[in-house]
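Researcher: Re-running this chain for the archive, since the previous output was lost when a drive failed. Same request as before.
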Amino acid sequence: MPRSEDARRFAEIPFLSNLDGAALDAIAFASETKILRRGERLFTRGEPANCAYVLITGRLALSEGDDAEILVKPSSLIGEMALLVESERRSTANAVDPSVVLLIPRQVFLRILKNHPASAVRLRDFCAKRLAAFTHGLDAASQRFQDLD
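Model: Regenerated C-alpha cells:
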C-alpha cells in the first residue's frame, strides 16, 4: 500500500520516524487539518496540551512570555510530549504567515502505539536516549557551576 504524503512527511520527523509505515499511515489518516490565518493563535501557554501539531506550510512563532520568539518552519513537530503525557503548553504559538498544521490527538496516538508495539518500543528507546543526553548535559552544566565556586 503506498504511503500517503502526510505519512511520508511524518517519517522525516525524528520523533515520528521511530514508527513503522502502518503506524504512520494510521496517524496520517487520523490527523486533522487546521488552517490558520496570519496572526491567528494556535495555542496559549498554560492551557492543557492534548495533541501535537505538524506544521505543513507557513511559519509559527513560539513564545514563552517576554523571551524571544522561536520561529517554526514546515515539517516541524510541535508539542510532541503532549502525545505521551498529560501536560500544559509551555509556550504560545501564533501564525506568522497563513499556515496549515496537522493536529495529532494524544488518544489516537496512544491507541496506535498500542496496536503497533514494535513502534512503541522504538519510540520509548528514542525518548530514553534523548532523556539521557539531556541529563548528561544538565550534569555537565551543574559541574561547571560548582567549579566556579
